[in-house]
Write a structure and sequence with these properties.
This protein is an alpha+beta fold. It has one helix and four strands.
């Protein structure tokens, strides 16, 4: 996937640990982290929305203790 297809998250700071997002079509969202750009997570808009809502609601806080 070409570099121009990826958009840096507005929440990412300058330097390392930046999140990049690509939506090649309306049914697919791809995520990658700047330190490992060859590792790409592919999901759907619905699944990503549900994950973000769960995180905002604190439903995933227990995972930080692992």
């Amino acid at each position: 996937m070409a570099t121009r297809d990826w958009q840096k998250s507005s929440y990412s700071s300058t330097g390392n640990a930046c999140l990049y997002v690509s939506a090649p079509d309306s049914a697919t969202i791809r995520l990658r982290e700047s330190d490992e750009p060859e590792t790409i997570l592919t999901t759907t808009p619905t699944t990503l929305r549900d994950l973000i809502r769960s995180a905002k609601a604190g439903q995933l806080d227990h995972l930080g203790a692992l």
